[in-house]
Amino acid sequence: MDQQEGSLREIAQLFRVSVSFVVRFLQRRRQAGTLEPKPHGGAPRGSGTR
């Protein structure tokens, strides 16, 4: 596990993000099979005309 932790730390430093961000990013990739953003909630916006 030390080798993997070292790699995660190196990735985090390379992209200037936290190790926890890298872990969550990889977990999302494993679980969802994609890195696409999740859909946003709420109703679609109106046309703006009244």
From TrEMBL:
Pfam families: HTH_28
Stretches the record annotates as Disordered: 30-50
Coiled coil: none
Name this polypeptide is given: Insertion element IS150 protein InsJ-like helix-turn-helix domain-containing protein
Top-level taxon of the source organism: Bacteria
Domain Insertion element IS150 protein InsJ-like helix-turn-helix: 2-42
